[in-house]
Fold this sequence. Notes:
The protein is α+β, with helices and mostly antiparallel strands. The protein has helices at 105-108, 150-154, 275-314, 319-370, 389-432, 434-443, and strands at residues 24-29, 33-38, 43-47, 69-75, 79-84, 89-93, 116-122, 125-130, 135-139, 158-163, 167-172, 177-181, 198-203, 207-212, 217-221, 238-243, 247-252, 257-263, 266-267. It folds into three domains: 6-189 and 198-203, Methylamine Dehydrogenase, Chain H (7 Propeller); 190-197 and 204-273, no CATH class; 275-443. The longest helix has 52 residues, at 319-370.
Amino acid sequence: MTWGEDRYGGAVPSDVAPHLTSDVVKVYPFGVGFAALKQDGSLHTWGYSGNQGGCADTSAVASELLEGVVDVFNSDHTACCALKSSGKLVLWGSTSWAAAGPPAASAVSAKLESGVVKVFSTPQAFAAVKDDGEVVTWGYDAAADSTGVAEKLKSGVIVTISSTDYAFAALLQDGSVVWWGFVPGDSTAVVADLTSGVVSLYATNSAFAALKENGQVVTWGGNGGNPQIVKSALASNVKSVHANENAFVAITTGSTVVMWGSNNREQVDWFVHRGADFDSMTSAALAAEAIISAVAAAEAFAAAADALFFEADAAGGAFVAAKDLVSAQSSVDSISAAIAAAEAAVANAAAAANAAAAASPALNEVATERGFLPDGRWDSCPSGGGGDGQNGQSASASIIIIVCVVGVVVLAAAAFLIRKRFVTTHQHHRASMPHLEKETQESA
Length: 444
């Protein structure tokens, strides 16, 4: 069953539909369509092909996909390849780059006739690993050209290959890492750390991270490739790493979380939830939560008190209502205590603001290392470039302090207004029902 926009795979063409009624073992999505693999090894595709061809259009290789297919791979949604049980790789799709270079698919097609065991891809390049250890690459960008590291790749058994948008990195069985393509920044500083001991690789769209057997994380590249402030936290005791398109997250043996990379596609490696910075944020959050709880309790009491006073007035001073009013009066003391707790929370928020102010030199130090651009974005290169760094640093620290101070003022004002409301309401009802006041005192 399919659904969604028809031309992108939401509707199955009449010539494909009969093949999808049974024995489908796996479905591969490729952005603008699908490919269904059946038990008999046949592959059936549908979706949007575009003007230059795409994964949905298998007409050029249809006879090759009738049997023996065991896996399917795609790159940039428009170029695909199917791995057959014989080790042959069948290519089809967009001609906008797959037939271009360096090198073109046509230049390596002979090497893909047999022996292929696994395929990896970037948005515009493929890397096929063969059973003899050779890595065959083709496509449009720098990742397609592995000639500079071909001997290194062939000298060891490849465990896995990870990829960014424009580069590949291969983990070899001896624990070393070999990479090729375009990787932003200077990677020479990490070469020595990647000659042995690596157990797994991870990647964002422009950076790699290697987890070593000693718990160290080595990074290089763009988003997340230069984690300034968390570098010491990644030196040891890391047990796992996770990556999305722009950032990394590491979990340590102590079950703490370390995060670095790009926030909203801007370089803010300094923004991490750890140490004093996290404690300050937590104190402010708890203070705000206490205020909100006090406000909610006060509003609930106001509604109950208003209903009680109305009932007492309608009863013309009935004793039962008077007795309840005495109980309500005691509740005023309880809500006063809640307001006092809220005011204490405001004090905690003020302390959090002071902590943030104290932390600002650390932020300024990081800003000096990173460089600050005029439009408020952190530069991804350590050497920075452009903009008034000092103004950016001051603005960064000032924003944090101002936010905390404004929060304190607002919360303090809320506590004051709540107290004033209850005192005024209580006095008004007392003045409007002197007979009830008298009966209540006599009853007491």
